[in-house]
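FW: tagging you since you asked about this chain on Friday. Here's the raw sequence from the shared folder, copied in full. Didn't touch anything.
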Amino acid sequence: MKFGGTSVADGSKIKNVASLIKRFYDAKNEVIVVVSALSGVTDQLEKIAKKASEDGKTSDVRSFMKNIKERHYSVAKEAIAGEELKAVVEELNARLKDLENALISICHLRELTARSNDYISSFGERLSAPILSASLKSMNLSSVTLTGGDAGIVTDSNFKNARPLLDMTDIKVKERISPLLQKQTIPVITGFVAADDKGIITTLSRGGSDYTASLIGAAIDADEIWIWTDVNGIMTSDPRIISDARTLPTISYLEAMELSYFGAKVLHPKTIEPAIKKGIAVRVRNTFNSDHPGTLIVNSHEEIKDIIKAVTLIRNVALIHISGSGMAGIPGVAGRVFTALGRIGANIMMISQSSSEANISLVVDESQLDLSLNALKTEFTENIVKDIFYDKNICVIAVVGDGMAGIPGVAGRVFTALGRIGANIMMISQGSSEANISFVVNKADSQKAVRELHDEFKLGVER
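HL: got it, structure written out here
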């Protein structure tokens, strides 16, 4: 079971989480828990670390430490009953002292490395996990706190976005977690936090708690991996746009991966990968509506009832056009585009190239636009490329569903529906899996387009 930041935002919510864990544990389940930082804490940690490196003011650090101490002490007092409170306060004191020392060192050095950033940002989970574990102990359950590294997750040393070494992780997680389960002890493990093979703290990139849960679940051959969040599951569309959007009871791994990459924020995109390897079902459930069955993510459907499962909208993206008659027939132009963008760490969400080879269009996150443009202009100083221009006034819409594969006319229905509302399609992309059609439209047309497609495929109707 993984619990996100909104599920453990305060003391009463942590007590609710502990009660949920106890309920399923008492029903004779073996339970492993992965927990995120208290809501908003990781952002605050990264902000103060950056501020310390730029301004070097120890007074800012002490002010921050006062606030973070008060919040965690208050949460602990509300979440923990009896004698367990004293022990967890001592543990929090030790970790908070380590955090303060690290931040003051950054003030003096006026430097924040990726390695230091990982160390600082790891404290959110390293403070929340002991509180949840102690809350379980106060309910007469045996529990122990582990960091992701303690639990056996081993990564490379690519700080801020470490990649797990899967074979080593599988072995170490089994070695360290299985004995705890045999002793009927519930491990409470820090999400997002891991360690390299030297034992140095690394992180799995933001949102990595889901990935932690999946890595551990796959390593110990769990029956299911549950992602507890603040919504009832994965929905047919954003309920803020579509009033009749509904929770999907079952989707496939492929559909879940497409949705996580294309705008559905319920799951971290990497979550499904370890589960696929072991064929383990992943369930998304609502911490605040625990009787709702949520969405079950499985290998495939025995029967595909819906051609389309969901329509998602991605905002804050930009379209880059690269064009020039000199590109036609010149080998390696696309390779140079990707290499240039790869050097600056830009994530290319979509790509399209005309058959004439005279232009390439691609979509990047808007926050990476300026870096991407500079990288491309630096790469193409000769006359091969004539123009590089961009458009920020766009959104990406993705239509997702396993049922599209091999079914004629789906794309026709999509584009006919968009034609009815006069939406201008600026770029189209479809993967070979046929589980996703993505396209770029003007921002002004985006919400109308999502509503029209949701209606066209009757996604609000229970099957």
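FW: The chain has a mean pLDDT of 92.
HL: agreed, and The domain at 2-222 is CATH 3.40.1160.10 (Carbamate kinase).
FW: great, closing this out.
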